[in-house]
Amino acid sequence: MPTTLVGIDVGGTFTDFVLLQDGRLQVHKEATTPEDQSRAILAGLTHLGIVSAADAPVDAELVHGTTIATNALLERRGARTALLTTAGFVDVIEIGRQNRPHLYALHQERPHPLVDADLRFEAVERLDVNGNILTPLDEDALALTVAEINAAAPQSLALCFLHSFRNPQHERRAAQILRRACPDLVVSLSSDILPEYREYERTATTVINAYLLPLVGSYLEHLTDALAEAAGERPQNTDQQRASLPIRVMQSNGGAIGASQAAREPARLVLSGPAGGVVGAFRIAQLAGVEDMPPAAVQNSPLTTGQESGRQAPRIITFDMGGTSTDVALCPGRVPRTTESEVAGLPLRLPVIDIHTVGAGGGSLARVDAGGGLRVGPESAGAVPGPVCYARGGQQPTVTDANLVLGRLDAGQFLGGSGAMELDVSAAEEALAGLGALLGGLSVHESALGVIQVANARMERALRRVSVERGFDPRTFTLVPFGGAGPLHACDLADALGIPRILLPPSPGVLSALGLLIADVVHESSQALLIEAGSLAQEPAPLQELSAALEERVKAVLAAEGVDAPALEASMDLRYRGQSYELSVPLDLPAPDSAQASAAVQRSIEAFHAAHDARYGYAMRSETVESVAVRLRGTGPGAALSLPQEPLGHPDPEAARVAAKRVWFGPNGSSPTVCYDRLLLRPGNRLDGPAIVFQFDTTTVVAPGWSASVDERHNLLLARAGS
């Protein structure tokens, strides 16, 4: 692994950089360039000295979190995509499921399919539920269909035949014919992308991959070429290949993978950026040794921290507030993962970190609706034109403008007082004054407080959804806010949910980029099984055969990434007979002989009963258990993160004090507030709210009734006064 690593997280407003070199971290921010994300990336790498046409390129590796896939789905600007499926099943992606997202809404609009009706084509073939051929693939008819596909001129095609997860023979042969007749057409096979049952979800996931493939592939190729060009790595002769900095891309499952593999399966990148934040927050909490507390002790227990040898399974709620959206995740001692997610109303059945997203960020636009009510988001000012105070042409007030007018942001200390961006306070006040007039004559500060309260309400609902609505008591968790705007709102949200503790990493504004740096190299694969688990325990040969194929598949991908001996973690999806949904439980693999494999299956069955009882409050141990699918996750270690430690010193923070000003925290007027420079705060320093802490990548609000202390690793630990 190169000695220099750079994590790059592209957000809606800023592109964040974290440089790890010789054990030292350096952070940087650039305004995102939505029309071409590589421009901001190149600018940041040039600033950090990683690329330069004048000097030899630095031996570095980039780990990139991108929003290309996410934005393409949200904005419906992916490739012109066709679908080839078994005759009679072309409308599966439009019929979908009979789910009602809004149960009592009389008029609901379904998301439009990614493939229009005139781009859906049929193939004459049929397999039975066990993969046996009922109707052979009619290659003569397929040749005529291929001509129709060619005439329709799609850029990409999803190939999804009925029951191909049992037998991919027809899909692979059809793909050969298509590629020979249409060499420029990129093809995604469902038997490669998602070899599991459930036709709608398998078809939809394969279509998503096909829809994104040309766009993501083109972007990664363009980025690679741009990096090589910027580094002056031009070939000396026509036979020499252009070199470039190696790039890995963050996947939705919290692991990184090489750019070439990422380009082949872009559906795995849909939650690329937010995943890095959860990985980074969990690791920081591990290093801080944050412990959970039982509900009964919440109100009277002190904040507990320790050394690295302390608790390695912290219970945290991550709160990532950027410029466009807020991502939250609940980590009950582990990073939560799921294979059942939905993006832009479309099912995505690939492994992802379980993250809930709402359209509330620093750039969220405030407006008055037709009924005279105040609305904030989900529309965002983005990087261009940005908030009104950025003086780039924005006219509509945002959450950032409200924080600036209230004094929680400081024009002179924005981006750490570097002077890289000037904030126009008077323009923000004028915009909020106009909003206040539309709300019945509210003052500038009243309208700004209203914007903050509405935005907080949206984010509070998101936090409740991942905690209270899933049976978790948020009072037993630690809130870890990050992103450029997270620390501004953390105390308000912790108060709303009764969360007694907040952990602020040393660089919360770029924590997602830091998470990219330390992410493991990961590849996951799955395969449908569909057999009674009891029968599998008696005769485990099908499991041994399937697990060997999965292991070979995962190891081959990771070997191409330089991971020769990956750690393997298997799981099995189980359910009771008659159920429609499964629970995933650990499976002890590899199992070299039949006796070990049988014992592994039996342990998984027992784990399933326990998991079902924990989730639903009962278990049916006499009922037949069915094995639906087997999953295998291969992992190669990422970069080690070791934050510098210093002994605790004197509690007086006076040396870090840089200013005092009046800040609005409520409708009763402003309060005198002390401001500190975080770089000058030392381990052991304690400060009481109200206080503001400035640093380059974010601004932290310590609200009235809260106190903060600096631990040995320079984390800020916030707690309610008296707790």
UniProtKB/TrEMBL annotation:
Residues 202-292, 314-524 form the Hydantoinase A/oxoprolinase domain. Residues 541-714 form the Acetophenone carboxylase-like C-terminal domain. This is Hydantoinase/oxoprolinase family protein. Pfam families: Hydant_A_C, Hydant_A_N, Hydantoinase_A. PANTHER family: 5-OXOPROLINASE RELATED, HYPOTHETICAL 5-OXOPROLINASE (EUROFUNG)-RELATED. One of its GO terms (biological process) is glutathione metabolic process. InterPro entries: ACX-like_C, Hydant_A_N, Hydantoinase_A, Oxoprolinase-like. Signal peptide: none annotated. Residues 6-181 form the Hydantoinase/oxoprolinase N-terminal domain. GO terms for molecular function: 5-oxoprolinase (ATP-hydrolyzing) activity. It comes from Caldilineaceae bacterium SB0664_bin_27. GO terms for cellular component: cytosol.
